[in-house]
Amino acid sequence: MRRTILNYLLMNERQIIEKITFLLENKYPWGKMDNWTNYNFQVLSEDIFKSTGKNVSESTLKRILGKVRMDNENYSPQPYTKNTIAEFLGFLDWDRIAEDSKSTNKKFIIQQKLVILYIPVVLFLIVGIWVAGKDWMNKFSFLHSAGKASFSMNDTLIRIPATLPINYKIDIKKHDKVRLNTGSERIYTFWKEDTILYGGNPGLKKTYIIQNKTGTLLEYFRNSDYLTLTADLNGKIVWQRKLHLINKEWQCGISPNDTNGYYFPINDQQVFKKDTMLYLSPADLQNQDMIKYPNYWVEYRYSDTFNISLDEMIFNTITMNNERIGGRKCFDTENFVAG
After folding, report:
1. Three-state SS for 283?
2. With a threshold of 0.70, does the pTM exceed it?
């Protein structure tokens, strides 16, 4: 029993000496203690005396720190020597080094256990983040995307009806999305799956394969309007162009009273042209099968290139509206100029 206790104490003491060796190796720029010479131990002995006023000989230091192998492996220094070395290293006494070593070992064991416990949790989180992150990165792929998209058109002043060529050059990566909004309800979308570039018009419910990265879209316009064409790559605008569609004849259509700003022309562009006025009666509108919205505007449009001064424009209209002409649901009239 006594031998077991002695071996335990000596084992703890060896751990303390290992810690002292570590502290001394970091205190002096001499490298590993195995490579220390007599000169190094002599300097150490002198420094201990200068710091504590107590003497620990060079030979004693060699024995304690294992530089000189002892015949008795159970060698243990005297309490005086132990406490002097502890004082030199900043400890109150030898026992404080022992307590600090036990605390360090305990922390290390706890850390090891925590690491072992956390490894499965961390791995689970990594897998979860990776799976969830795929969708997140797809949504925000413009942060790292190297894709490019450009559009162009030759004319911005078009006399309708006309087919307008829109040139595109698209070089995108997987998960990128390019959208071209023609200013009306039509939006073209381009995307890539593997090595195939796709395009489609959601309004026409049509999808087609684009063989080349460069090409031309043919967009048909038949309504007077002042539009802004916009293209974006993953939500970031890459191109914008104003388009003025002109026509020297009056056109009529309706615009739902909402925030979309869409304009839908009636099918028969002659029915509203009366002898002395422009007038689309509720009955005419009903016959056009255009009453699809609870609130809407009836619009009469005339567009052309007007030779006017930039400082002044005179626009005269005579508007007649009453319950018999406009119907009971006609609340307001407006005149506006766009250009």
Report:
1. helix
2. no
